[in-house]
């Protein structure tokens, strides 16, 4: 009879996936730095773990994004409206320092602002982030100098968020840490990171996804609630989670997540809601009455076919389309041959919200990048989508340059901008289609092909189905039918994964 030690050593734990071995695009790209690294190449340099490398790359790319804003930092934000567009270096941050009363010491939500925007139109946690940055900005010197410092302070705080996003993404899939490089090296991430304050919500959501992958449902809920207090879109993930927990019978974990999310959101919002109800409600009323704006499918339809679309019509159609998408996603999740991975449905629901929204600001791509890296960690598809987003990033600034340069008409005309919108829409739809194909044909899913079930699924990872519809209702009905070893750290809070894996 074999000893326990012999049994333990006979079961070989799976190695972390190396993208230079698994992905042809990653392998080709690695030639720029000397080619793929061997299995044992890093044994003498154990400090350079994947997570540390990814964090440093993310910080480096973020710094390059700051350098890209240098023409505006020097003068573009202050002298001549078209300069910040021709150099594609626009940012809301310096403009709102004075425009939203931070330069004058006004308290967000409590003090009325001069002009049409009577209160700050951001969610409470984002408003707090903006206010903290204002506290750290010295008041001496000209207003131009103060705006420069305010942008720099915000950039430093947002850089921390960027590092958190990259690290959390890398650690969510324990056997695929190098997928975090998709986030760290994403060109649209670097270009849009300091346009607005979206990275705060993205970082909180990335941390929430990490907690769920570890089986910590309450911590996931708390972080999701905080992310929703910074931006509305993270709460959409409760929909896919509901359907997946329904299929797996994980009602207790879903209840913990929902309780944590609602509780955390209320803790942040209730004080402001009670003490400054008008200011607190501004974000929601502004979102409701805002007209169709840049980048949206509604603007594309209105401009291309010359159809006027009111904000009421856009609101109604956006709601109808989102309801239809949610129904379709629920049907997909309950009838798929294998239960979809949580990250796949999370990406699809946020992408649907972006595609049906009344506005698509360039920085909204940040919402999708970490989810895309988890849902479809394939460099070819990721880079195709990123190319479309970079095209849109350049297109919107060139279009604004065209509209603000007077008779000179420097930039991109309205027709050219419509093609930029189409590039964004088609690129996002392409990535959605590939993810849906992976759900319907799980053998095409690069994550499951490596021998895992749902590494970001937490308690869903390897769980048995208890409610399915269609062909999936026929046996075998176990969610973890795959060829390959099963490991304890796959999603139920097991031991730490090795961090000295090679690229």
From TrEMBL:
Keyword Transferase: yes
Predominant cellular place of this UniProt entry's protein: membrane
UniProt keyword list: Cell membrane, Membrane, Transferase, Transmembrane, Transmembrane helix
Membrane topology: Multi-pass membrane protein
Disordered as annotated region, ranges: 1-23, 482-503
Pfam families, per the entry: GT87
Compositionally biased region (Basic and acidic residues): 10-23
InterPro entries for the chain: GT87, UCP010361
Subcellular location(s) per record: Cell membrane
Any one cellular-component term (Gene Ontology): plasma membrane
Membrane-spanning intervals of the chain: 47-67, 149-170, 182-212, 218-245, 257-276, 288-305, 317-336, 342-361, 382-400, 420-440
Keyword Cell membrane among record annotations: yes
GO molecular function per UniProt: hexosyltransferase activity
Protein family (similarity comment): Belongs to the glycosyltransferase 87 family.
Name used for this protein in its record: Membrane protein
Organism: Streptomyces olivochromogenes
Higher taxonomy: Bacteria, Bacillati, Actinomycetota, Actinomycetes, Kitasatosporales
């Amino acid at each position: 009879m074999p000893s326990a030690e012999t049994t333990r050593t006979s079961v070989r734990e799976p190695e972390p996936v190396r993208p230079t071995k698994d992905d042809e695009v990653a392998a080709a790209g690695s030639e720029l730095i000397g080619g793929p690294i061997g299995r044992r190449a890093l044994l003498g340099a154990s400090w350079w773990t994947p997570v540390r490398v990814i964090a440093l790359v993310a910080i480096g790319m973020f710094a390059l994004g700051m350098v890209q804003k240098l023409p505006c930092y020097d003068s573009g934000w202050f002298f001549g409206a078209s300069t910040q567009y021709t150099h594609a270096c626009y940012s809301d941050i310096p403009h709102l320092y004075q425009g939203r009363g931070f330069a004058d010491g006004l308290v967000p939500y409590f003090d009325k602002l001069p002009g049409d925007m009577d209160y700050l139109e951001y969610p409470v946690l984002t408003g707090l982030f903006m206010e903290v940055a204002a506290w750290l900005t010295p008041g001496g010197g000209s207003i131009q100098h103060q705006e420069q410092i305010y942008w720099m302070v915000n950039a430093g705080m947002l850089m921390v968020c960027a590092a958190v996003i990259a690290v959390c993404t890398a650690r969510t899939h324990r056997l695929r840490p190098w997928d975090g490089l998709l986030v760290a090296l994403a060109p649209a991430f670097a270009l849009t990171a300091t346009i607005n304050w979206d990275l705060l919500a993205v970082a909180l959501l990335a941390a929430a996804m990490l907690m769920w992958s570890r089986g910590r449902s309450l911590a996931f809920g708390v972080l999701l609630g905080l992310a929703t207090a910074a931006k509305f879109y993270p709460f959409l993930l409760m929909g896919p989670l509901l359907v997946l927990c329904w299929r797996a019978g994980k009602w207790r974990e879903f209840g913990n997540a929902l309780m944590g999310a609602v509780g955390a959101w209320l803790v942040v919002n209730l004080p402001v809601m009670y003490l400054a109800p008008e200011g607190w409600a501004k974000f929601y009323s502004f979102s409701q009455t805002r007209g169709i704006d840049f980048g949206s499918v509604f603007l594309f339809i209105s401009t291309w076919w010359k159809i006027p679309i009111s904000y009421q019509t856009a609101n109604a159609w956006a709601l109808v389309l989102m309801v239809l998408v949610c129904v379709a996603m629920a049907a997909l999740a309950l009838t798929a041959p294998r239960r979809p991975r949580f990250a796949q449905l999370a990406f699809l629901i946020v992408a649907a919200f972006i595609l049906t929204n009344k506005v698509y600001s360039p920085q909204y791509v940040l919402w999708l990048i970490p989810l895309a890296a988890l849902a479809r960690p394939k460099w070819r598809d990721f880079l195709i989508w990123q190319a479309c987003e970079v095209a849109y990033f350049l297109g919107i600034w060139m279009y604004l340059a065209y509209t603000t340069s007077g008779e000179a008409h420097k930039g991109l005309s309205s027709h050219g901008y419509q093609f930029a919108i189409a590039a964004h829409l088609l690129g996002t739809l392409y990535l959605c289609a590939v993810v849906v194909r992976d759900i319907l044909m799980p053998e095409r899913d690069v994550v499951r092909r490596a021998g895992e079930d749902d590494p970001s699924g937490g308690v869903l990872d390897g769980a048995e189905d208890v409610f399915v519809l269609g062909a999936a209702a026929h046996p075998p009905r176990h969610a973890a039918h795959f060829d390959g070893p099963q490991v304890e750290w796959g999603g139920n809070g097991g031991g730490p994964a090795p961090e000295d894996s090679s690229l």
